[in-house]
């Protein structure tokens, strides 16, 4: 028998149970919603390479450069206008801006550790430096690029006392015409007059801003001004880096597609026509050329030990070059046939320039080299030759011989231990010859030999006469400036090698190969 009090209490208990159930349902829904939001936020930060942050104004379409195969770049390609000027070296050298650490809440997107937890930006820093050839800036923190405006902006997380700017060219040589400057700005976070541009795309990889054009198109400068500095700047990332190229040259990206594709896994963006605001954690502005066609290991960023040996090994891998060593010869000057087969001779490639600084007695040089014990092939690589075909050809030789000029850049494809013979024209050009080809060859693990011609071996003696200052007093020509040096000694001179005088140089090359 149930009492009256119990009967009255039952409905009340049922109501409380119902309310408790409703509260549990609401709490469960909120927990699911919260979990979804957290997971979505982490996915947006850590998963894609580039995440649209706000709807873009227009969508770029990846296109390919003519003959570039799979190497794409973002559509565009106008050249910069006007003469670009960099700031003085004393203002740029090793400048570090900003306090060491930030406090407070992050601005912009967060960074992630290995556990995937979002962390705020620190205040960031701008580190600019000058080398004998180049200006570069490394920007760390909340970094935003605006391609069409040619700006790279550091957004501080906390109060910063002043706004600072650096104006530099992203090309590897100072003050090249036709290449616009990039302005690197460290914002003052307390100033309402310098608002930060909002991110439209967020990247999880670092970026390198570079400029093409300049001297590119000259085979030597393709390597010295672009490929070598780009290798140094990007190799540490293992392909996980975004390239933004100003003054973009589709033909150049097509010609060196294989190299660029191994340095970055992503299409090169056309900086001049990129209207997105891209956000990065680290942006390097400019390429640093340590020396002409050379690498100084102590100057390589990121603590990665790189040298010209690493660069040439990279080229051999890129172009699948089969030889990593020259021919092996016996120590005897002549070897008897083995099993009735004639012993192989070392192969010598003779570069025959088709214009100024050309060899005018090629047949005599060929005979002298054959007499010394070489198998000789005459080569005149043209501009439109595919790089892989040229690389494979050069790699099959043991000696590269040529007058000072861009053709000697092909020494990068020789196997380590091979020989480079540079014929230096008349006019006290030895320091330049050593700097541009001698030192790089030695750092590639090659044997470098130099043959400086006498005035009797120069056609200038015939064309100018013995009393001309370019013949009698080369120092006076050098004092007149580079234009006169280039005019006479590089632009008006051809070479007639005295094969008797040249014979000891050929003998040295053969002796080196015997010692390998």
UniProtKB/TrEMBL annotation:
It is a single-pass type II membrane protein. Residues 78-90, 102-117 have a biased composition (Basic and acidic residues). Residues 49-121 are annotated as: Disordered. The keyword Ribosomal protein does not apply. The keyword Glycosyltransferase applies. Pathway: Glycan metabolism. Residues 323-421 form the Glycosyltransferase 61 catalytic domain. It is found in: Golgi apparatus membrane. InterPro entries: Glyco_transf_61_cat (IPR049625), Glycosyltransferase_61 (IPR007657). GO terms for cellular component: Golgi membrane. Keywords: Glycoprotein, Glycosyltransferase, Golgi apparatus, Membrane, Transferase, Transmembrane, Transmembrane helix. The chain crosses the membrane at residues 21-39. Its main location: Golgi. It comes from the Eukaryota. PANTHER family: GLYCOSYLTRANSFERASE, HGA-LIKE,PUTATIVE,EXPRESSED-RELATED. This is Glycosyltransferase 61 catalytic domain-containing protein. It comes from Triticum aestivum.
């Amino acid at each position: 028998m149930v009492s009256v009090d119990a009967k009255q209490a039952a409905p009340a208990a049922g109501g409380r149970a119902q309310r408790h159930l409703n509260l549990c349902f609401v709490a469960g829904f909120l927990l699911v919603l919260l979990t979804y939001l957290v997971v979505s936020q982490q996915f947006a930060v850590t998963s894609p390479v580039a995440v649209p942050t706000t709807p873009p104004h227009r969508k770029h379409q990846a296109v390919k450069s003519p003959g570039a195969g799979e190497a794409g770049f973002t559509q565009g390609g106008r050249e910069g206008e006007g003469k670009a000027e960099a700031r003085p070296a004393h203002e740029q050298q090793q400048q570090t801006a900003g306090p060491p650490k930030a406090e407070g809440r992050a601005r912009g997107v967060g960074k992630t550790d290995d556990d995937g937890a979002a962390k705020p930006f620190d205040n960031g820093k701008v580190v600019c430096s000058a080398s004998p050839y180049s200006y570069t800036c490394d920007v760390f923190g909340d970094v935003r690029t605006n391609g069409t405006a040619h700006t790279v902006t550091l957004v501080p997380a906390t109060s910063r006392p002043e706004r600072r700017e650096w104006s530099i060219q992203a090309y590897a040589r100072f003050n090249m015409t036709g290449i616009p400057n990039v302005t690197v700005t460290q914002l003052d976070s307390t100033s309402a007059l310098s608002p930060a541009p909002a991110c439209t795309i967020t990247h999880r990889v670092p970026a390198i801003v570079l400029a093409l054009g300049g001297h590119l198109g000259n085979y030597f400068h393709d390597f010295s001004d672009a490929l070598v500095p780009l290798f140094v700047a990007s190799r540490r990332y293992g392909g996980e880096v975004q390239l933004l190229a100003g003054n973009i040259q589709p033909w150049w990206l097509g010609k060196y597609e294989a190299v660029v594709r191994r340095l970055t896994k992503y299409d090169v963006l056309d900086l001049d026509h990129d209207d997105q605001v891209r956000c990065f954690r680290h942006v390097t502005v400019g390429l640093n050329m340590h020396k002409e066609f050379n690498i100084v290991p102590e100057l390589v960023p990121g603590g990665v030990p790189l040298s010209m040996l690493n660069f040439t090994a990279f080229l051999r891998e890129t172009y699948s070059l089969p030889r990593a060593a020259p021919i092996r010869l016996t120590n005897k000057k002549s070897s008897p046939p083995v099993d009735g087969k004639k012993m192989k001779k070392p192969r010598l490639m003779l570069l025959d320039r088709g214009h100024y600084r050309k060899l005018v007695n090629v047949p005599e040089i060929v005979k002298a080299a054959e007499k010394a014990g070489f198998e000789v092939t005459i080569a005149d690589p043209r501009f439109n030759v595919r790089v892989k075909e040229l690389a494979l050809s050069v790699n099959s030789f043991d000696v590269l011989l040529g007058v000072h000029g861009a053709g000697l850049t092909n020494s990068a494809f020789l196997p380590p231990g091979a020989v480079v013979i540079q014929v230096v024209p008349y006019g006290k050009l030895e320091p330049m010859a050593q700097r541009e080809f001698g030192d790089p060859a030695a750092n590639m693990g090659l044997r470098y030999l130099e043959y400086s011609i006498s005035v009797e071996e120069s056609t200038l003696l015939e064309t100018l006469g013995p009393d001309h200052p370019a013949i009698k007093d080369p120092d006076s020509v050098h004092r007149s400036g580079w234009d006169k040096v280039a005019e006479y000694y590089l632009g008006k001179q051809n070479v007639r090698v005295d094969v008797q005088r040249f014979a000891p140089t050929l003998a040295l090359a053969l002796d080196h190969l015997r010692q390998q």
